[in-house]
Design brief:
Layout (H helix, E strand, L loop, with lengths): L1 E6 L8 H4 L13 H10 L11 E3 L3 H14 L3 E3 L16 H13 L15 H13 L6 E6 L1 H7 L9 E5 L10
Parallel strand pairs: 1-4, 2-3, 2-4
Antiparallel strand pairs: 1-5
């Protein structure tokens, strides 16, 4: 199966501390006006042509981007929980500052829990299993568009992604996800 992978566009994060949205409350942010314009331009990318379905992360910034792509392509959108960005906390609701500390700890450990230690963040191994289960569901398609996050994109292709950057991969059950 071919995947045209797109990172979501530029999000507009609310001041969640002031609104009492803690932990993943920031994931409710939609796109900035500039982000909408970026997504509209990205919707014209020829790498998206020939797709049969859009599969999106459930987080608002990805769904908003997918909706703009669907408006141009006329394709249906499937919401796929397995395409969430890295899960920074597996146990409880945290403030943004605490979630940021978990992200920093993940990066410092390259996604691998230190030997004989556990962490509350999702390990790279857990992330790989989640992504494989999510993408394997769509193997019956010849080509899909996946709208998700920079972190997920780095499991498929090395390097950072700009907002709405698109790349293609060939995906099969034996696909090897990239380490941190």
């Amino acid at each position: 199966m071919k995947i045209a992978y797109m990172r979501h566009s530029e999000p507009q994060y609310p001041d969640f501390e002031a609104t009492d949205l803690i932990g993943f409350g920031w994931d409710l942010a939609s796109l900035t006006p500039r982000g909408v314009a970026i997504a509209k331009e990205a919707a014209k990318n020829p790498m998206l042509d020939g797709a049969e379905l859009i599969v999106s992360s459930p987080l608002t910034r990805a769904l908003h981007t997918a909706g703009i792509i669907a408006g141009r392509t006329g394709l249906p959108i499937e919401v796929e929980f397995g395409l969430l960005e890295r899960r920074a906390d597996l146990s409880q609701r945290l403030s943004y500052a605490e979630v940021k500390l978990m992200h920093d700890d993940y990066d410092a450990n390259r996604g691998i829990w230190p030997k004989n230690e556990g962490r509350n963040w999702e390990s790279i191994e857990m992330q790989h299993k989640r992504l494989k289960a999510a993408l394997d569901k769509y193997l019956g398609y010849s080509k899909i568009i996946v709208v998700s996050h920079g972190e997920i994109g780095r499991r498929l292709r090395p390097g950072n992604l700009d907002f709405c950057e698109v790349f293609e991969i060939d995906y099969a059950p034996e696909f090897e996800f990239l380490p941190h």
